[in-house]
Please model this.
Amino acid sequence: MSDHQPSQKELPEAPSTAPTPAGISRRGFLKGAGITAAGTALLEGVQGFSREAVASTPKGVKEFGPEPFPVTLHINGKEHALQIEPRTTLADALRIQLNMTGTKVSCDRGVCSSCTVLLDRMPVNSCMTLAIDAVGHHVTTIEGISTDEQMHPLQAAFVRHDAMQCGFCTPGMVMSCVSLLEKNPHPTEADVRYAVSGNLCRCGTYPKVFAATLDAASQLARKA
Model:
């Protein structure tokens, strides 16, 4: 067997007009997909869609938007009535409409988890959660974990261990660790590492976050 591998130039070039299984050339598809009317025609021809099917709404499904509409969100134990557009994220509703700026938005793509809040006690990225999807659920933000102006033991431990620098990741780190301690009051360092594995810290304060969380766990255990 020859060890010769064909170079890129030796590989046959796919024709730009190669037909698709539906009989539409690739070039024709690319040219047509950029035009709304042609794109609709392609959908009708290739996938069997009709304008009536695309425009129809299933029975029992309520449409919202594009204009704002009223919703009620249950946040930190209180009901908040506000007007939102369907595209409004939970992060924007919290920060812009309710002025709860403790929740930080850093990447705005669900990558860094600085915007972490608890939805029914589960940590979620609020920048990737639509506000309308939070209706009927209980939302807890960084502002809601302290009581009577007293910091949560985990917040106090973050201060003692200096587990923050720029502070952008800190609220998300705290919320992820709060969720961990609620589920597992006696975590190991491996448990903490796993809990914050989706939280990015550009400043590199991970070791202090681990130490602060384990310290808070021991403080809570003594109070129990």
Observations:
- Confidence is low (pLDDT under 50) at residues 6-12, 14-18, 35-49.
- The radius of gyration is 25 Å.
- Residues 157 and 212 are 5 Å apart (CA to CA).
- Helices lie at 26-33, 36-47, 51-55, 90-97, 153-160, 170-183, 189-195, 206-223.
